[in-house]
C-alpha cells in the first residue's frame, strides 16, 4: 500500500517511476489483511444479528450455516477486481510495473530479475511478514496469511497471541462457528491499548464462548496421524485442535534487499530506522511503512508515501506523521477504537494534571437482547483547560464514530469543546460529548 501510494503520487507530480512488485498489487492490506478481514468481519456481524433476530421479533430459520467456500470465492473475486483497478491506475500514470523483487546493488542501483535499474531516489516499502515462533513443531501452526487460504472453517481452533491480529482472528472464527481458545502468554489483551479496553474485550469474549487462557506459554506443537494439532503448554497440559494460528506479531520484510551493499542494516529490533523525512543514512534511499517501526497500519504507510513523494518532487514540505495521533480500530465483536494517549501514558507524561472521564453502559441495541454487553467510552484530558489527549471506546458502532473525534483531538479540542457540542441521540457517539 505504501509503495503504491508513493509511486502514484510521484508520477502525478511528474516523476518517472518504476514500481517493483513480484506479487499481487495492493500488498498485505488488500490480499491478506484489512480488506479480506473486514469482509469476514461483516460476515461475522451478520451472524451476530441472526443470533438476535428472534429477540427483535423475527422468526429465524430453524438452522443456519455459514458457506465458507462460497464466501471465499466471492471474496477472492472482489480482491482480483481491486488488483485490476490498481494495474489500470499505474498504466494511466505511466508507471512501469516491474514484476520482480528488488535488491540493492550499491547506492542508486537496484537489481530486479535480469534488469539493473538506476535512480536518484529509491524507496523501500516492503511491509511486514507474520512472525512464527522458534519452538518445536511451530511449522504445524498457521499464520494470518494462511487464514484466508483455508479450504474450510476449523471446528476447533487455537489462536496464540494477544494483539489486534489475534483477537480479530479469534472473534471472526467464533462468530462463524468455530470453537475458539485464545492462548495468551501475558495477563491481558491488547497491551498496546488502554487497559480498560482489553479488560472489557475479555469479558465480551468470555460471554461469547471464547476461552481466554492467560499466562499460557506454548512449549511444543505436534501433528497427529489424523491431522489433529496438539498444543502442549509450559505447564505440560496438552490439547488437540483442528487448526492453530500464530498471531504473535509481524516482522519487517527486509531480508534479501541487499542493505549490506549500501552499508546499512536493521537495528536490533529488525527495523530500518529513518528520520522524520523518511530518509535512511544513505543519500537517496528512503523507507516507509512497516519496515520503519511506524504504526503498522495501511493509512500510515499511504500517508508516509504520499508525503515523501511531495517532499521529493516539489509539492511543499508536508509535516511528518505524529504516531500518537494515529487512530486505530480493532475489528472484533464488539469493535475497539482508540486514538491518542492511554490513561497510563498520559499519567506518565503529565502526572496529576490528568483527568479521566469514563462511562460504561448497555447500548440501546442490547436493550432488546438477553445478553447485555457493556459499551465503554473513556476520555483522557490534561491541564486546567482539559485538553483531550486520548479517546478509547469499545462497543457497537465505535469503529465508525472514531474518525471525526480524531480530527477534533488532533486540532487540540478540549473537554469544554466536547461539552458544547450537541449530541446525536440515541447513539453511542453521543456519550463522548455528554461525559460528566
What does this protein look like?
It is a single chain. With 436 residues, the chain is an alpha/beta fold. The chain folds into three domains: 2-130 and 251-323, FAD/NAD(P)-binding domain (3-Layer(bba) Sandwich), CATH 3.50.50.60; 138-248, 3-Layer(bba) Sandwich (FAD/NAD(P)-binding domain); 334-433, 2-Layer Sandwich (Enolase-like, domain 1). The chain has helices spanning 2-12, 27-32, 34-52, 68-92, 144-147, 164-176, 195-207, 298-312, 343-350, 398-410, 415-419; strands spanning 18-20, 96-98, 102-104, 109-112, 115-118, 122-124, 128-130, 156-160, 179-183, 211-213, 218-223, 229-233, 238-241, 243-246, 250-252, 285-287, 328-330, 336-340, 354-361, 375-382, 387-394. A hairpin with a 4-residue loop joins strand 3 and strand 4 (109-112). Helix 3 (34-52) packs across helix 6. It is globular.
In DSSP terms (H or I, runs of 4 or more residues), the helix count works out at 11
What's the helical proportion of residues? Answer: 25-40%
For the secondary structure, the number of strands is 21
- Main β-sheet: number of strands, strand sense, barrel status? 5 strands, antiparallel
Kindly identify the CATH topology of the largest domain. Answer: FAD/NAD(P)-binding domain
Shape verdict: globular
Sheet with the most strands: spatial strand order = 17-18-21-20-19
| N/C terminus separation | 41 Å
Low-confidence stretches: none
What is the average of the pLDDT values?
A: 96
Number of domains: 3
Over the alpha carbons, how many angstroms does the gyration radius reach? Answer: 23 Å
* Class from helix and strand fractions: alpha/beta
